[in-house]
Every structure is written in structure tokens, then in C-alpha cells.
Amino acid sequence: MSKHGKILVAMSGGIDSSVTAMLLHDEGYEVVGLTMKTWDYQNSGGSKKETGCCSLDSINDARNMAVEKGFHHFILDIREEFGDYIIDNFVDEYIAGRTPNPCILCNTHIKWDALLKRADQLDCEFIATGHYAQVKQVNNRYVVHKGVDEKKDQSYVLWGLSQECLARTKFPIGSFTKSDIRQMAYDQGFEELAKKPESYEICFIPDNDYRGFLKRRVNGLEEKVNGGDFVNKNGDILGKHEGYPFYTIGQRKGLKVAFGEPMYVTKIVPESNTVVLGVKEDLDRQLMTVRNPNFQSIIGLDGELECTTKIRYKDRGTPSTILMKDGKVEVEFHSPVQGIAPGQSAVFYDGDNVIGGGFIARN
User: Fold this and answer.
1) What secondary structure does DSSP assign to 237-248, as a single string?
2) Do 121 and 260 sit in the same domain of this protein?
3) Are residues 50 and 63 in the same domain?
């Protein structure tokens, strides 16, 4: 009989999820490892060798850890629901002139649902993942709290988790730094794991070429979007772009048009097949609308609330005031921010606690 009960651990084969399983096992939990197969690399059509969380090597690495530590390991095939929901949304968002973040959508709508469903089938009270974050209780509510390692903190990608999910979720490595985790793997004799490089790619785009992926997924995409114009904020034509889905707000490199000064993408208008360019100051914004909000530390917004808002994963955050209006969150930044990209996530913080978040809307 285990000391702490039974827990299902999502294992990608990487160092973070492997050490997560190792820590929980050594702590006295009855660990069950689960590796989710989300994507077949041969379906991507990319040129890069199969690597990452869905590769055969990664699945074998996860299984080897389970064998070494003496706990059960299963593989769960969720390719169908992943493809239908995550990849279709990824393509649709770019066609709509937005910049998606599929990892956040996957966490919220696919992985946690799959984990909890299988946890119930296996009589596991809790689930665990290798995210650099923590779960705290604030005013009798479960909230995502930033990880100790500021450079690795992943609280930003977890804003969509519900109270039901968070009540059963553990993030064992959130109270450690990345160097701590590598040292733990090394100390336990998993030297190859300790040296294993990290993957920053989207799992279904192993060659990191999202433009090529879109072209392969959408029949006639180039004919639909090619030949559009780069324009300035006054509508004057500056040149031709390669297709509006291939650009994102704040982009400077890769425009392939010469200007007398650095120019940035400031707006994408799919209806007219145009990409608006401007100088860096044209990216300044102090107002933003956020759709499909989910709140963690509060039940909902009642009036104005002061917080810190992050508009991208590596953003340090900006003091702001938020309030609800017509089912969306209106955000007023206390100072201008640059590079607000529709489709990306906005996450609201009270100190290190996640208040909630949502998707940035096109204003």
C-alpha cells in the first residue's frame, strides 16, 4: 500500500516529466506513467528527423524510466481528438489573421481531460505533469502559482485550467530550478536524461516551419492569400507580402522589402488581404480586449481590478486595470505595451498567483 495514494503522471520522455515521476515515486506515491500520443510526425510533411514528445525515442525513454523505478506505464492515443481540435484551430486562427498558441489550447481542452478521464479509470486520485508551476489555495480557490525558477516558469500556459482540474493536479518540480532537476536526474543515475536537450517546437511542426505546414494543410492557400499588399497606416502601398497568415504582430525580420528605417507588422487585415507596417512606436497600445476568459483566484470580475498582465510567454508583465464588459475583459495598461497579437493569451496576475486569462481579441 502506497503512503500517499495513486497518482497518474503525464510522461513525455523528457527530463522534467521523468523527474516528476521519480520524485513522486520516491515520495511514496503509487505512480502510474502515461505517455500521450498526439501526433504522427510523418503526417507533418516536414524535413526534420522525428524528435520530441511523440517520437518513438521519447516514448521509449518514458517507459524505461517506469521500468527502472518499477511502476506501470501506458501509452494513450489521442491523435484523433488532438488533430480535430488543436490543428484545425491552429490553421483557422492563422487564416483569421490571428497568432495561435496551440499548447495552451491543448492543455485546457485535450491533455487535462484525457489525463483525468484515464485517472478515473485507473483509480488515481491525482494527476501530475512536469510543468514549472505550483498549485496554491487562495480564498478557498485553487490557483496556479508561478514556479520558483523565473526563467522556466510556465504559469502563463496554464490559465485555462478549471477548479476541478487544479484540485486534482500536482506540479512537483515547480518548487525547483532547472539546474536542480538536472542534478536530481544525474544523482539518480540517469546521466543521459540529465544531458537531454529541451524541445521548444510545436509538437506537430518538428521542423519549426509553420508556413510550410499551413501550405500543406490548406489546399490553394497561396492562391487565396498571395499578392496582397503591405500598406502603411494611411493605406499607402509599400510593397507585396507573401500571404497574411505568414506574419505576426511585432514582426520585423523576414519582410523581404527594403525600407529606409526598421518597419514592423502593426496590424493584419485578412478581409482585404493586407498587412499594415509601421515604425516601432506604432506598436504602442494601452487598450486590449480579451475573449473567452477563465478565472482561477476569483469567481468573476465585479468592477475594476488592478493586476499585472502578461501578453506573451516571456513578457515580464505590465501593471493594468481590468473589468468585464459584454462577456469580455477590457484591459487598460498603465503604460504603453508593444506587440499585442490577437490569438495569443493574456494572463492576469496578482503577485505570483494567476487571477485568470483569455485570448487576445482583434479590436
Assistant:
1) EEEE-S-GGG--
2) no
3) yes
Give residue 267's domain range.
Answer: 226-282
Same structural domain for residues 177 and 71?
yes
CB 308 within 8 A of CB 278: no
Q: Per the residue annotation, which of 54, 124, 203, 307 is the catalytic one?
A: 203
- Asked if 106 is an active-site residue, the reply is yes
| 124 counts as catalytic | no
Of the candidates 106, 124, 165, 307, the residue annotated as catalytic is: 106
pLDDT string in tens for the chain (363-residue length): 467 899 999 998 889 999 999 999 999 999 999 999 887 755 555 545 444 555 677 788 889 889 988 999 999 998 888 888 899 999 999 999 999 999 999 998 899 999 999 999 999 999 999 999 999 999 999 999 999 999 999 999 999 999 999 999 999 999 999 999 999 999 988 888 888 877 767 888 877 888 888 988 888 777 777 779 999 999 999 999 989 999 999 999 989 888 888 999 999 999 999 999 999 999 999 999 999 999 999 999 999 999 999 999 999 999 999 999 999 999 999 999 999 999 999 999 999 999 999 999 976
- DSSP-assigned letter for residue 41: G
> Which residues lie closer than 8 Å to 270 by C-beta, 6 or more apart?
95, 96, 97, 244, 245
